[in-house]
């Protein structure tokens, strides 16, 4: 009975997340209420509050579903024992572009984040979470870059802190622009070339030298 109850709770949580994804995508985060999500999911608002504190918490749970497939590669490139950290990063970024372009769920959630989410008063918690996440991403990218410098894959005098910020902004910019105007360039078909362009910035830009 306990196991069944846990399974039912997980099923309800999944229903709520699916409904939130649909509502946020169709209406935008600001115009979507928890009542809208409850109606789509076929549950009560109380059921939503059982699983999520507020709309910000619900959106964060949606974003968390995107991280899992890429975490293994990210961890590998951050390891000092990894012999090919730059190669791991290259694979990670190519896979990211492919997922955004080819996986409908990944594309929808990214479009919600980039173009359908306003950091209004009720979303202050989400704004703080995004700020923390952005800073953590810069640190993780910087760690990978330092490992790549140590392995002789990037210049010894690379400013890895500035390089991490530039690469992060480049990746976010590409994804955000493609989601807004998908016909403007080919993200999936030319994923490897877009990634190499970002890595060339690290290898060749004089402005990224100490």
From TrEMBL:
Residue ranges of domain HTH tetR-type in the record: 10-70
Superkingdom of the source species: Bacteria
KW Repressor (keyword) present: yes
Gene Ontology terms for molecular function: DNA-binding transcription factor activity; transcription cis-regulatory region binding
Pfam families: TetR_C_2 (PF08361), TetR_N (PF00440)
Xref: Gene3D superfamilies: Tetracycline Repressor, domain 2
UniProt-listed GO biological process terms: negative regulation of DNA-templated transcription
DNA-binding region: 33-52
Keywords tagged on the record: DNA-binding, Repressor, Transcription, Transcription regulation
Protein name, entry field: Transcriptional regulator, TetR family
